[in-house]
Amino acid sequence: MAEEIGLESRVLEFVQGKPILILTWTGTQPHLRSIILNSHTDVVPVFEEFWTYPPFSAHKDKDGNIYARGTQDMKSVTIQYLEAVRELKAEGLRLTHWTVELYYLFDEEIGGHTGMEILAEHPEFRALNPGITLDEGLASPSDEFNVFYAEKCVWWITVHCRGDPGHGSRFIENTAASKLNSVINSFLEFREKEKKRLQSNPRLTLGDVTTVNMTKVNGGVSCNVIPTEMSATFDLRIPPTVNLKEFEAQLEGWCRAAGDQVTWEYHQKCMNQRMTTPDNSNPWWKAFSDPCKELGLKLKPEIFPAATDSRYIRTAGFDALGFSPMNNTPILLHDHNEYLNESVFLRGIEIYKRILPSLASVPPLDGEH
Description:
Blueprint: H1 2-5, E1 8-15, E2 18-25, E3 34-40, E4 59-60, E5 65-67, H2 75-90, E6 99-105, H3 116-119, H4 123-128, E7 132-135, E8 144-151, E9 153-162, E10 166-167, H5 176-200, E11 211-219, E12 225-226, E13 229-238, H6 244-257, E14 262-269, H7 283-294, E15 298-304, H8 310-315, E16 320-322, E17 339-341, H9 342-360
Parallel strand pairs: 3-6, 3-7, 7-16, 8-15
Antiparallel strand pairs: 1-2, 2-6, 4-5, 5-17, 9-13, 9-14, 10-12, 11-13
Keywords: Cytoplasm, Hydrolase, Metal-binding, Zinc
Cofactor: Zn(2+)
Active site: 42, 108
């Protein structure tokens, strides 16, 4: 396909059996920074019994809705990148300045640890000195198009509580359960406060508040034995506007307040809060948003409420925007009956056909010739 379109191709393999495909459309000044179109080819599992149509059949119904796992996350965008490039090249467009690189990675859904996390720090990636990376966004149920300029920090923490054991018929003091109850209450009370803050302020989005969810509870060996140890695991997604040191102190204070023999461990603890500036002081934002405005698109800059491969790119010091041109579409990523309407998909190709030449026309930045 790359040869058919007229793109150079190469494969990087940092982990055996896990190749990263890179397609290149070279600009007129290849020494300048690159524009990265990033996508992942993996999808999450399905529960086929809950789907109306086979989840890998790409069935199109009478309304033009295409049902398949990955239609929103993110095979649609992957194809839109490729088809936009194909059509632009067929129309004879030559990139004014910048080179466009299309990246196809394989493990975003399981954390990107053997893909973009490694690639973003690799000398070959840094040698490209990316100017801007476009990556996945989310569908929008409204007429607006979300554009994500930052992502939340993901913290996964397990709190372990140890206490005195005993027979289930007695009022044992200093139990693991009483300590865990204190911890759980602290986390979930904070969760409720953040939920109410979001609900009471129409200007806030999910990306502006900290979400907390208890995802695991463990402990006990028998119905009549008070356990020596119990634990709970929490998934926290923290906006980049939060002071992480202060938040960490608050969180660990809840654990200490539960009593002695309470410990905690972080399974994931992102501390990078780098954001891409979403206004015209950033030439990449201007080059992205101007053609969108010309097309009449209503852009809504937001903080992404979860995590994508973009977090590794921003951590490496480069700008990234998350954008999936899917408005008037229910958010169904990872859900049963994930679908995208054919007309929305085809319009997305036209949108990228306007965005890519604009990005490639950004004049050389300061210090670049």
